[in-house]
Structure formats: C-alpha cells, structure tokens
Amino acid sequence: MSSESAPVIVWFRRDLRLADNPALTEAAALGRPVIAIYIHQPDGVWREGGASRWWLHHSLDSLGRSLWALGIKLHLLRGPAEDVLIRLAQQTGAHSVLWNRRTEPWANHQDTALASTLTGLGITPRSFNAALLFKPGIITTQAGRPFKVFTPFWKACLAAPPPAPPLASPAALRPWNGTLAGESLDQWGLLPTKPDWAGGLRQSWQPGEAVAQSRLTEFLSESLTEYAVNRDHPAQPGTSRLSPHLHFGEISPRQMFHAIRRTAEPGLGSERFLAELGWREFSAHLLHDYPDLPARPLRREFENLPWRHDPDGLTAWQQGRTGYPIVDAGMRQLWATGWMHNRVRMVAASFLVKDLLIPWQDGEAWFWDTLVDADLASNAASWQWVAGCGADAAPFFRVFNPVLQSEKFDPTGAYVRQWCPELAALPDKWLHQPWRAPADVLRRAGVVLNKPLVDHDMARKRALAAFAELRAG
Predict the structure, then answer these.
(1) Known catalytic residue at 342
(2) Active site residue 419
(3) Of 154, 360, 368, 385, which residue is the catalytic one?
(4) Which of 101, 197, 374, 446 makes a 20 to 30 Å CA pair with 191?
(5) Which of 276, 401, 407, 422 is flagged as catalytic?
C-alpha cells in the first residue's frame, strides 16, 4: 500500500457530530482515506445506564446517516478499544489513528496506553480536546493547584484566553474502499425490548446533531433572556434541555459558548446559562484531578457519617412514592422521560440524602441508570454538592424543605399535577402538603392519601444530629 493511500482511522467516542470535531477535521486535512469507527465497550463499572444506551443507539444511527451523506460508512466494532484499534490499524495499514479525548479517568489511562503502543508500531496517534472548553490542568489557582470552589474557577476560565472558535463540518472526506467485519446497532441490544419502557423517551427526545443545533438556536432566541428566572420553575419550558446532546457530543461546549457570546445580549440570562456550562466544566476538571470522585466523598470525613440502610425508603424514592408531591413528581418525570428539571433534582437529592439519610452514592447510581444526560463527572459532583461532602458543596445543614420548594417554584401546582395526577383535583392550598388537607377535601378530590415516608421537621433534626455526631467524632 502506497503511503498516500494508507488510511486514517477516526475513532468516535463522546463526539457524535461532524461540526467542531477536531479529529474528523484533521482526517479531512490529511486527505487520506477515512475509516470511521465506534467501539462498543459494554464492560466496566460505569457502563452506560439504560437511558443512556437508548440515546446512544439513536445518536449513532444519526451520526451514521450524516457520515454516509459524505460517502463514509460508520463501522461499529466491539471489544476492548486498545485491542480493536491496534488490530484494525495493522490490518488496514493505517497511517494514523485520531480521536477526541473523554474526561473519565479510565479513558485517560486507555488513551495513554494506546498512544504508546501505536507509536511503537510506527502508527501516528493524535488526540484532541473536544469535550471541554479548557484542557484539564490549564485552569489552576495562582499556586498552580486545582480549584475546589466553583466561582473562582469560573472567573479564571472567563479571564483566560477564550476557547478557539468551533470548526465547521468537513466539506468532503475521502472514502476508504476496504471492508470490515463490523456489527449492526441492533446486534448491540441497546434498546429495551422486554419490556419496552422507552415510550416516554421517544415522545420527549430526538437525538442527533441537527436537533441539537436547532434546539440551541431556539433556546437562544426564545428563552435565554428570561432564563435566570424561568430556570427554577419546573412547569415552564425555561431550560435548554441540551444536556444529553452535550453529553453525547452531538454539540460541543465551544459551539455553545461562542453561540451565546455571538448572539446573546449581555445580561443575567446569558451569564447564568454560561455558568451552567461552567459547572459542567468544573465537574470534569474535578474528576480529572480526583479520579475517585464518583465513589468517595472529597471531604473524607463524610465516609463516617452514620448513613441509614433503608432499602424500602430507597425504592419508594426511586418510584416516586415518598408522599412529598414535588419529590414524587420529579422522580416520575425522570422514569418517564429520562430527565428531571434541575431545581427538582436538587430537591429530590436533598430528600434522599438528608431526609432519609441514605448515602448519596445510591442516588448517584439511580440517576446514572435513568438519566439520558448521565455524565459521570456532573453526576458525581452534583450529588456530592447536595450531600455537603464535595467541592464547593452546599453545607450539610442546608436541608431543602420539599413543601416550601414546591410552593415557591410550582405555585400553581402545574408540575405536580402533571406528574402526580392522583392529586390533580386538590385545591392549591393543599396540593403541596396533602396530608394536612381535611378529610372532606381529600374525599371530594378523590385522593387516597399516601402519607409521607418521614416528617420533614423530624428528619431535618435527625440529619443535623448525624452531622453533629460526625463533627464531634
């Protein structure tokens, strides 16, 4: 095989898009035949949860059609990535292997080993930062240490030279004419079948790069101005709902960052939305610096907090049967659609960790399996924030009152009524705390009362006592 015809392998990972894809852009610039692949690695502690697998199936299908429009087939391969790539590079006589880096610690180790082996074989490895605004290790304190508090971290990001403008989609790619014994998406079994529980996901989402771009454009033009206020009200369409598209790389953080800077008027809405992008960035940098973030609290003393073993309470929380309407509404929205409004995520998480004193790792695991935007770094950092044991964490003694939260952010009860229809006929006065409603009101509304798992005031005192015990110990 002549050197000019030696192909370049582009390994897709969490970058399922054509635009602002540095690895794909580099492949186009080399002018060599392109072998586009995705490797399914179903093993591992943090393998994709059920909702993520559903999204991955449809996202890969969308990417495959986009590449095919450029004359390139997306080859689907299975197995340990290093083994698959080395074997493929040797079989095809590849000139180079290009990929975009992921943020998980295991992926970093995998990349290092892969690059070393490929170099030893005379094959050029190149990896790129496409998942973050800034490569981990660039944004540090004046002492050169990682930030542990979000606000100074994000200020440092905004003060740094801005990320490079996003790259356009390649106008053309040179196809590779060889054949590979790949697999089909259906062979991977990513979609649920027995039972098929994904009906709500299909109704709520359409994965793919084109949809992500359309959603961003719509959000910037219609919702960004009022985002700072509406983002806290779950009954309103005030959030971007871009998180799963961002997680799977159907859109890049650079595309979002520059679109906001380019099209949005300066104001609180754009600042708040950028800060949400910043929290994602902060979480990823934390995971890079503290690889055990998903399993262990950053504040190690919290390993000794007297957590409760309460499988029945955990199940009731998972199924939206706590008796607190705002919590139950959120957990049912999660199960039905693979997503939960961020304000309600905080309330539901606080209830599990502080009202029930169930370890935050149990909630993290449930979200990992049920969220279409289940991101290892953001999930771990956010649960640790709620539990008071992570970086920039809310103090443990900050315990969300689910009734007050519901009354404040769902004052008309529209969100609760949507997801807890058994309470829909209750008057607003009693909707957020139906156990206090008079018996005749419950009877007229046809409500069979589901009493709360715990009394919040009692649970709050119990949580504070546990925290005091931790500090005293």
Answers:
(1) yes
(2) no
(3) 360
(4) 101
(5) 276
Is residue 379 annotated as part of the catalytic site, yes or no? Answer: no
What is the residue whose two structure tokens read 């949507």?
A: 418
Q: Beta strands 8-12 and 33-40: pairing type? A: parallel
Q: Report residue 220 CA to chain centroid gap.
A: 21
- Catalytic status, residue 276: yes
**Residue ranges in 189-292 assigned as alpha helix (H):** 199-204, 209-222, 227-230, 243-247, 253-263, 268-289
Judged by average pLDDT, the poorest of 3-12, 66-75, 124-133, 393-402 is 393-402
* 55 catalytic per annotation: no
Token pair 């939260």 is at which residue? 405
Catalytic residue among 368, 383, 385, 419: 383
- Residue 360 appears among annotated catalytic residues: yes
By C-alpha distance, which of 299, 318, 231 is closest to 269? 231
Distance CA 11, CA 97 (A): 7
Q: Which of 106, 230, 307, 401 is catalytic?
A: 307
When computed from its CA atoms, the radius of gyration of the chain, rounded to whole angstroms, is: 24
Q: pTM for the full model?
A: 0.96
CA–CA dist 23, 10 (Å, integer): 7
pLDDT at 466 over 70: yes
Q: Provide the mean pLDDT of the chain.
A: 95
- The catalytic position among 82, 279, 407, 422 is 279
Alpha-carbon dihedral sign for residues 356, 337, 238, 236: negative
Compute CA distances 37 → 109, 164, 316, whole Å: 20, 26, 42
Nearest to 323 by CA among 455, 457, 461, 462: 455
**Model confidence pLDDT, tens digit, residues 167-184:** 999 999 999 999 999 999
DSSP letter string over 34-83?
A: EEEEEEE---STT---HHHHHHHHHHHHHHHHHHHHTT--EEEEES-HHH
For 121, the 3-state DSSP assignment is coil
Q: Considering 129, 230, 342, 401, which one is annotated as catalytic? A: 342
Domains of the chain: 3-131 (3.40.50.620), 132-164+209-289 (1.25.40.80), 300-472 (1.10.579.10)
Q: What is the mean pLDDT of residues 396-413?
A: 94
Location of structure tokens 């949005």: 264
Strand partners, 124: 96
The DSSP 8-state label assigned to residue 165 in this structure reads: P
User: Given the structure tokens 């990320």, which residue do they identify?
Assistant: 163
Q: Cα separation of 162 and 265, whole Å?
A: 18
